[in-house]
Amino acid sequence: MGQLVLSKDILDEIIESRLKKKHRIFLDKEKLHPDYIPEKLPHREDQIKRIASILVPGLEGTRPSNILIYGLTGTGKTAVTLFVLRGLEDRAKIRGIRFRYAYVNTRKTDTTYRVLAEIARSLGLRIPYTGLAIAEVYRRYIEALDSWRGVHVMVLDEIDYYVRKHGDDLLYKLTRINEELTHGKASIIGITNDINFVENLDPRVRSSLGEIEIVFPPYNATQLEDILWDRARDAFVPGVIGLDVIKYCAALAAREHGDARRALDLLRVAGEIAEREDAERVTIAHVKQASLEIEHGRIQQIVSTLPLHAKLVLKAILYSIRDKGYSTTGETYNKYRNIVTSLGYEPLTQRRVSEIINELDMLGIVNALVVNRGRYGKTKMIRISESVLPVIEQLLSVENG
Ligand code: ADP
Ligand code: MG
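That is the input. Now the predicted structure with adenosine-5'-diphosphate docked in place:
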């Protein structure tokens, strides 16, 4: 009963505080969601035309060439590909043409069974979540595609995740699928953020998957401004976003290799902060705050997925920093060993701990600077930036007691 009253109070409070707000920030926040595909994709006209003209023979029953698309994160690869495929599929439907696509993100759908099941389901097949042999799912897909007699485009997004985990057998098999088909036709679009992946791909797979290769260049600050304006117009109440705010988000994201996703995140989170504060409009201060919150979220994500010993090394660094503002490799190791033995575990070697410190440095969690201490030799000065220190302290004390 007490519980019920309490939750009722909380709900009333939330509703009242919402109703008390004088200002409205968002018109339709969904328009800033990373999965939302806008009706216009500025500065990607060339890529849209290129992909559409490669795929359009599919509407005449010809197998389109396979395409390998690569470029850094947030350069519009997923949005452009889906934009073109949805557009073509809609138009094919109106004309009664058998042209369809399947979209699988292999970072999220990460087993061979689930990848094939999703491809097969997009042709309307009912594939159970488990229970069939992979070869059986494959066989049913081929059979369905053949009796449907259409053109099927499979998009394998973030394909490097799948290949890193399971190798390239499936890709090899799928690039040869047309040899097993009599009436249906299949093409593949592989997408990756990882240029190293493309370069290390087996040459046979690369040449058949990348019959055509398309590179997405990063956006510059001015291009990001155009993109943000378009999305902001639909997402915000008129007048709450000014050019200064758009320019500032674009500049921050341009520094981050021209990532449109980061630019949109900044704008969305800045809007949420303005909404929380019941501000009249979104300001540069809100964007700065948003940038901090996003950075904290990133740190949180990294720290919570660190392996146990890396967490304990980080904890050892925190203790030294509490004492005197920084730590060294030797001090970190001593504190680490104390923590580990008090927990009843076996400590790693000093050398391994030193490697972990380097990894934490590369992840941007700590700053490790090599300093020369004369006759005492070299050591590392390890610090943690003040803006993230409280976040890490909180995460570790919660998790490890
Ligand atoms: P990638 O797949 O290359 O990592 P995405 O296609 O997911 O990048 O794009 C990241 C975000 O930026 C998405 O929300 C997408 O809608 C948006 N976006 C990217 N390019 C544009 C553009 N030219 N116009 C409007 N929004 C864009
Ligand atoms: Mg993508």
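The chain has three domains: 45-216, 219-302, 306-399.
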